[in-house]
Design a protein that fits this description.
By secondary structure, the protein is an alpha/beta fold. The chain has a domain of 88 residues: Phosphoglycerate kinase, N-terminal domain (Rossmann fold, 3-Layer(aba) Sandwich). The chain contains 5 helices and 6 strands, in the order βββαβαβαβαα. It has a 3-stranded antiparallel sheet with strand order 2-1-3. Helix 3 links the parallel strand 5 and strand 6. The model has no long low-confidence stretch (mean pLDDT 93).
Length: 135
């Protein structure tokens, strides 16, 4: 889980931002819109050691520059681990790796985020079942 966050009073590119550190509460009039630098560092270190990476969901509101750093740094960390199988699922995550310019370094990309997670959980997917039904 993130230990620090980039916060702002509104989800707008012009919003003033600040970082709240570990254990520091997020004020009631603010919201967390990205992970902070300590979280980026910790997540990147884990990703560098991983041999299988499954990523579903951006780290923040990456569509707005003040809140994109976490998502783009994590995308770069995934792309820079050549020894790992990397799977990115979900429309927003796919858009994020494309915006970060690293989509070509990801092993598998799927716009089916929720379906990808259900598949990994071992649930039967109706579309796949229909294709494999041997009646």
């Amino acid at each position: 889980m993130p230990t620090d966050h980039v916060i702002a009073d509104r989800a707008e590119a012009s919003a003033l931002t600040r970082i709240v550190g570990p254990g520091e509460p997020i004020p009631d009039n603010m919201m967390a819109l990205d992970i902070g630098p300590q979280s980026i560092e910790a997540f990147s270190e884990e990703i560098a050691r991983a041999r299988t990476i499954v990523w579903n969901g951006p780290m923040g509101v990456f569509e707005m520059l003040p809140f994109a750093k976490g998502t783009f740094k994590i995308a770069q960390a995934v792309a820079e681990n050549p020894g790992a199988i990397s799977i990115v699922g979900g429309g927003d995550s796919v858009a994020a790796v494309k915006a970060a310019g690293v989509a070509d370094k990801i092993t598998h990309i799927s716009t089916g985020g929720g379906a990808s997670l259900e598949f990994l959980e071992g649930k039967k997917l109706p579309g796949v079942e229909a294709l494999t039904d041997k009646k």
